[in-house]
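Re: Re: token formats

Sure, here are both.
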Amino acid sequence: MPHASAAQRLRAPGDRWDAVVVGAGVFGAWTAWHLLRKGHRVLLLDARGPANACASSGGESRLTRTAYGSDELYTRMAWESLADWKWLSESADLPVFHRLGVLFFFGRMEPYAAGTLEVHRRLGLPIETLDRAGLAQRFPQFLWDGIELGLLEPDFGALMARRAVQTLVQRFTAEGGDYRLAQAAAPDTAAPAGDDSLAELVLAGGERLTASHYVFACGPWLAKLFPEVLGSRLFVTRQEVFFFAAPAGDARFQAGAMPGWVDFNQGDMLYGFPDLEGRGVKIAHDAHGPPMDPDGDDRLPSAEGLARVREYLARRFPGLARQPLDESRVCQYENTSSGDFLIDRHPRWRNVWLVGGGSGHGFKHGPAVGRYAAQLLSGESLAPEPRFGLAAKAQRQQRSVH
């Protein structure tokens, strides 16, 4: 992937940055990378480190797919992002992207499936349709009771989340970007009310940073940093993820035999992965959990959550039903009312940008989100996407993006 050379980059006088990006998760890291490629002098900050265990970008694996029903916007963004993920994976010591194929399956032909097929046909994207007999032949490790239709995306699969973000930040610094560990970055709210630009960023301990632009891509902490703007518009929820030991010597649950998958029925969604890199078979429920404080709440899985997943294993994966739990994680979603991303200016400060609302499906779109945010900040001529605007974020959840 081409990038700006050191000689081409714009160097601001003194210690003033062109942009300070707060939050080294998937959205912040890709935004910083694209700004750097455009020639900006960029500082990337994070309070605990890139893709740390408290962040929404931490953990092992994320699904990448273009199946979004009739929602062409996210289909395009996921397809656009895939090339960037492949580039990053090819440049890494260990793979960032595993091409497993991704299988959606349904009890019948329903609007989500029909919309996905129509969008893929219109955009010329690869997708295969499988009936129940075809599913049973291709994927015998599943029990296909109640399922009549499968949609297989052969070019997609799993992103290794923590590794992906850490690899990108390493590339960012190797190409001349700056990264620092900085605790509790916050805007200087003491600035006069009439000022329409944020002058300084205050770090814990009192250090002040000066930049032309500030990007806050802080995941579940965005609402804490900007409570007056986002406190009632971002919903941080607890999400439980489980990994089960693959049966010894059984290749059916390994990458290459088992795809990434999504069980999409009656609006409910469970998803998972084969045994990737020896971590176990991953299964999680996409339903939004209870509210969660990313700073104060312990991250212990619930007995109820494990029981629900084990009941699902007995119905869909009989070969895993009695396998031991290898490990579990508790992370969080930061949802907007609709599930659409937030990529917009702060309503008071014209040089402050808010990037977040990954809403549980955002990781795969990181390259496209970063590119779009960098274009907005750089003043490039493009039509802003109304769905990403702050004005579109309501105070009651009615999720429409899955």
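Second one below.
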Amino acid sequence: MRNKGIIAIFILVLITLIFSGCIDFLIDGSTTYESHPTKISYTLSYGYKVNCTSSDEFDLYEIRYDCDVPEVLNGQISSTVVNDNSYEDKTLATFNVVKSWDINSNVNKEYDLGITASVISESYSVADLNGANALSISEISSSLVDQYCRAQFNGTTAFIDPNNPNIKAKANEILSNAGTNNSFLVAKELFIWLKQQTAYRAHLTDNNVQPAEDTFQCKTGDCDDLSFLYISLCRSVGIPARFIRGFLIEEDTATPHAWVEVYVGGRIGNNGWIPVECAGVSANAETEVNQNFAIESADHLRLFMDDGSNESLDISLSGLSYVTYGTMVVEATYYSEVTDYTVLRSNELVIDENGNRSYS
């Protein structure tokens, strides 16, 4: 009977690992996940198609739109074509190059305000999950803390809110229980709490982003909501964090998406910043760490990076705007189209017994 019980437990564990995306766990303690694309190429077109019509030649319209230029963390943008050449180049919120349209006209016309880019993208990951070479929280420069550990408001609402007493108390509790000041390991513990205590849920009727406090209380949210809560938790204990906006790329779909970067310094990540995907759906926290903490898969395309300011938050939550005069009618339709999607390489993600991550 005892042997049957052991076998039953083994089968239950095996089923759990399979459904979490883990297809093998070896005697040496390593874990291997299902093979997935780790290098892809594709062409992406995105922006707004705007149709302006009126029967009166004196009717006017004004259109404003800033279209972010794409980037990849690991790979290259081999070409970028702007679909309407009446733009200006601008840099917004410190880092973000955009193609900007400021149109004032009375001409009946259809505009294509967008970009077509050819992309090669590869998965990026931090190999060591043990935090070696990361800075302690107290070693992080005060200038980064000042820039990336404050609240960010859109109007009067704090969407990123490290000063919220509930969020701050929970973050400090997690820090205390972690038993370390290593910024990488504390950020990992905060991520584990997020994955254990919250669940991804898309907004079905309301597209508005939730403030971090709302997500903390209801324990559900979409990619924006979960990212803002995680950023707030990190900032509460002095770990700089910022949001990234872009797309998740599939064979024929580009879905608007948001994720996070956390600063841990040292010789880790991209100049000390590590990517964190907060919207994973696995119920297993270890699986979420292995697949989504300090890793950015090839299907992520970057468009906008936060600089810690209220302006940055405002810009990231805005889109095309227009004003009409007289009987002028403006119809604006957002589009994002993927073509020529090709998998250049697929790999299994392997975590060895020492917490080292690699693709094979």
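The first strand starts at residue 22 and ends at 25. Residues 146 and 174 are 22 Å apart (CA to CA).
- S.
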